[in-house]
Amino acid sequence: MMADMIKKPIVLDVNNMMADTLGFQYGIAHAQVDEYAPFAAAANQAVQAARGTGWLGWTELPYNQEEIVAHIEKTAERVRANFDTFVVLGIGGSALGPIAVQQALNHLHYNELPAEKRGGPRLYVEDNIDPERMQALLDVIDVKTTCFNVITKSGATAETMSQYLTISELLKKEVGDKWPEHIIATTDCEKGNLIKLAKENGFDLFYIPGSVGGRFSELSPVGLIPAAVCGIDIRAMLEGAAAMDERCKSDDVWQNPALLEAVLQYICMQDMGVNIQVTMPYADSLKYMADWFCQLWAESLGKNVTRKGMACNFGQTPVKSLGVTDQHSQLQLYTEGPYDKVITLLKVEEFRAESPIPHGCEQFPDVAFLGGKSLNQLIEAERQGTEYALTKKGRMSQCITLPQVNAHTIGQLIYFYELATAYAGELLDIDAFNQPGVEESKIASYAVLGNTSEKYQKKAEEMAKRPAKKDEYIL
Ligand code: PA5
């Protein structure tokens, strides 16, 4: 297993995005990036000037949480001492970060390990309302020995609150008056129903600053509590984020990795019609970082109006993929399908395990050559093979290398992506921090469920007028 945590910088390599490698037909010219340099500088200045304000509260999270971190660590200790299971109830930005960080930084079969080998209780993140899933959870946990972390920034999300209703009723039945001791609430510091419930019932309560939106909240108590409970070094995560912040202060696009990333993706989207970004980690530990990034990039940049009120249809569809698994599923499309994708490979330099491949099968040279090598060498060779195959076919790719997957590098990666998203929002001149497109579906679903308030009643009437479905299209 890996020794000490290496606190080296993660590295962004964009060679395979550029015309120098791919030619001018498929790649981005250095001069093209230079042309955008003044806009990039303005984007950085706008972000830096607004640090900590508006929706940019997350930029200060690496620095302003000393007291909160100490409180979280104490709470984590209490949870570890009293519970064998920890369940997060939350969805979207209140769930994807905790899932990604747990997968990245703890054992890949963490829940199946015996208690003494885990850093904390078993962890489940319930980020859906599939009724079978809730039942399945209840089949494998004992609520009497479980702590539930209800996470919702708005304090009102139907999915999370319906889970809360189920769990709180069950807890009352199973543990009586002590039920509030089983709940930790993480929510907005002022608004919403959860804060009221927490105060009314005396839950342990942690705040998400008003200036930190759901998908930018992983480095707030949203992500820090589940991580700390499961033994993750949250101080190192924040230190990593601060280190990335330091690297991204420059106005010069060639000196600021998150700014370069935003400019290149902007050129992909706006100048080249490259509207799909595939994130392909070559490490199971990073599998759900791709999921977390998908929400961040999609919800932030998928907009139909600019900040000046001009109609637009901006955004780049994020797709998750896993190396090497998806080489046997999607790579054919990526190398020979439409020229509408850019592939981000995530590479790990030093894995936490060394897995040698034994010698054998000498009668089959195609198998025998593997003997004496390691899975570590094989996965990196396959990553290089994919990079080569993509480049040869004129497909843009970039590589982010993590010296190790550890709390420091994950903190860097989270902050890098958050900053790149904010810069991309500036370049596109859209509001990267709202999500109005989610509203219609939300209101319609409440109308379907018979919510009697006026807004939903009106929606129900509107929905009743939609054209009836034709039988001929239903087979
Ligand atoms: O980024 C966002 O704001 C959203 O995707 C939210 O994370 C998601 O809708 C869940 O919201 P809440 O945390 O308010 O329950």
Structural commentary:
Strands 1-12-11-7-10 form a five-stranded mixed beta sheet, sandwiched between helices. It has a five-stranded parallel beta sheet with strand order 3-2-4-5-6, with helices on both faces. The mean pLDDT is 97. It is 45% helix and 14% strand. It is an alpha/beta fold. The chain starts with 10 loop residues before the first strand and ends in an 11-residue tail after the last helix. The protein has 17 helices and twelve strands. The structure holds 5-phosphoarabinonic acid (PA5).
Key traits:
45% helix; alpha/beta; 12 strands; five-stranded parallel β-sheet; 17 helices; 475 residues; five-stranded mixed β-sheet; binds 5-phosphoarabinonic acid
Summed up, what is this model?
This protein is an alpha/beta fold and 475 residues long. It contains 17 helices and twelve strands.
Profile the largest sheet.
5 strands, mixed
* Order of strands, widest sheet: 1-12-11-7-10
Query: What is the helix content?
Result: 40-55%
Bound molecules: 5-phosphoarabinonic acid
Tell me the radius of gyration: 24 Å
Which oligomerization state do the chains in this entry correspond to?
single chain
Q: Which series of helices and strands comes N to C?
A: EHHHEHEHEHEHEHHHEHEEEHEHHEHHH
- Average residue pLDDT: 97
> Between the first and last Cα atoms, what is the distance in angstroms?
55 Å
Q: How much strand content do the residues show?
A: 5-15%
The overall strand count is 12
Judged by helices, strands and strand pairing, the structural class is: alpha/beta
Count, helices: 17
Shape: globular
Low-confidence stretches: none
